[in-house]
Design brief:
Elements lengths: L1 H5 L3 E6 L4 H16 L7 E7 L5 H9 L11 E5 L7 H9 L4 E6 L6 H10 L10 E6 L6 H14 L5 E4 L6 H12 L1 H4 L7 E9 L8 H7 L1 H18 L8 H14 L8 E6 L17 E6 L11 E6 L6 E8 L5 E3 L2 E3 L5 E7 L3 E9 L7 E9 L11 H11 L8 H20 L4 E3 L7 H9 L19
Parallel strand pairs: 1-2, 1-4, 2-3, 4-5, 5-6, 7-10, 8-17
Antiparallel strand pairs: 7-11, 8-9, 9-10, 11-14, 12-13, 14-15, 15-16
The structure holds 6-O-phosphono-beta-D-glucopyranose.
Length: 474
Amino acid sequence: MEEIRKSPDTVLVVFGASGDLARRKVLPALQAARATGQVRGPVAVLGVGRSDLDDDRFCGLLASDPLTAGLAEDSGWVRLAYSDGAAYQRLGERLEGAAQVVFYLATPPEVFSGIVAGLAAAGLNHRGDDTRRVVVEKPLGRDLLSSRELNLALGRAFDETQIYRIDHYLAKDTVQNVLAFRFSNPLFESGWNRNLVQSVQVTAAEEEGIGSRAGYYDTAGAVRDMVQNHVLQLLALVAMEPPTTFDARDIRKAKLELLRAVQPIDPQSAVRGQYRGYLDEPGVSPGSRRETFAAAAIRVENWRWDGVPFFIRTGKALRRRSTQVVIRFRDSPALRLEGVRQRPIPTLLQLRIQPHEGITLRIGAKRPGTRFEMVPAGLDLEYQGLAGAPLPDAYEHVLAEVLAGVHTVFPSGEEIDRSWEIVGDLISAWEASGHPELYGQGSWGPEGSQELVARLGGARWLNPEDNLGGVGGG
Ligand code: BG6
């Protein structure tokens, strides 16, 4: 720890460093990112929190877990109450001489504003100076108002260029590959619009239930937990216009433009579900009406997508873990043979975000040995291991990008506000009345979700186990 006081190069100041998020995700990711070379050079860790720890005890804590042991040597602890302005001076003393400081707020969101104000009051924010950065993680508000308040609080202390808001989906390699795929394959991009696309489906399904997270989840639900952030960000990358450059500023601009074209979700075009047994999960309030599944048809009102329905769904305790985007292209005219119409095989492009990361193009082909009987055939690209490189972990990528000062995988405050606008009516309507439709654990969600898609022009949901004619259907 003496090193931090002497000549630290980069210091990662982790608020709430003895808590669950920091010890399970943030600190192991830092250790791993250093091991894989994503983060180069020494990074000292300064834990900050209310726990009664000191340098030695915090080092001991890190050393006791193999996932963080490698960080122990270069670490220290500053004990402070987040609202105690004077204490931030002490933190400042520990940071003297540091060339680069990242403040990572791994705390409950209620204390974000207090911490940011404390940093500013002690002059630790260095407004406008990119060598001081702040990282926050969801929940970034629970509605438009609280999201705006948080953005204002951050903006009072830091410039936008110093702020990093985590959406770990954006940091998934396959999510970034959506952009690379779209904009480096003109064959697809030229038909990536209402002329050739019939509908788009985005699925973010999880096999696990809520586990021990009722305290958070039962006040949030699927829309706040997944749709407002991960699902809308993924949809934005799928549907946005080509950015002028691939620099963060242009990518964020293109996403924001797209999100502005996304219409607030109409509760009439959405379905909520709750898995059977949710009410028995420890910590869930009796009779809770919280949704563990949400599906919706989304309208994107711009030139490119007018009239093309985007269906989204996400949920817990579903058949299997699968995040995928399926683009369904318009059907070809039916082939006629000896007076009989052959039903066309829909052309589908499946972008598998996880697991079995890759891309399948499902096309129609003639069944060998028949005249013109059509069968689905798949062209597959296995992304995992492409070029011999393993897929980097999203959290490691997040940390590497923060330390490198690159914003590409971080949504802007405006995008986050706009996403709250998109889900606001839906959340209010669902909180005001009604009950989610129950669905069995291990199913694909409530019946209503299938009906929604059929009613609004998407035929049916495509599940990962459906035969797409290739590995994607495995
Ligand atoms: C988190 C949600 O943001 O994302 C969790 O709070 C969810 O409820 C998780 O399980 C899913 O992330 P991943 O990377 O496992 O798909």
